[in-house]
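Re: weekly structure request thread

Next one in the queue (94 aa):
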Amino acid sequence: MSKCPICRKPFTFREKYQLTKTKTPTCPKCKNTLKETTVSKLLFGLIFILPIVYFMSIFGEWDSILKWFYLFIWIVFCLFILQPVLYRYDKTKS
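Done, posted below.
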């Protein structure tokens, strides 16, 4: 897991999940404002989008309900489990 760039205390999974769901993430320990790094946003975007394109091309002849079910499971997995793990935070410019 990542650490706060200011106080250097590690985030728990629950704290990282809360950071990804807020508009302006703040460190739960030192209360400083943080921002997501651009690399973590790009990495999450690649890991999120590429399998969706792959799922859509492979499951072309499958039943559409099954295809959308797998797609829904992938989106839920990415947003609630993968995103808090991949995101890294940096200091804000203030």
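Residues 13-91 form one domain. The longest helix spans residues 64-86.
Next request, please.
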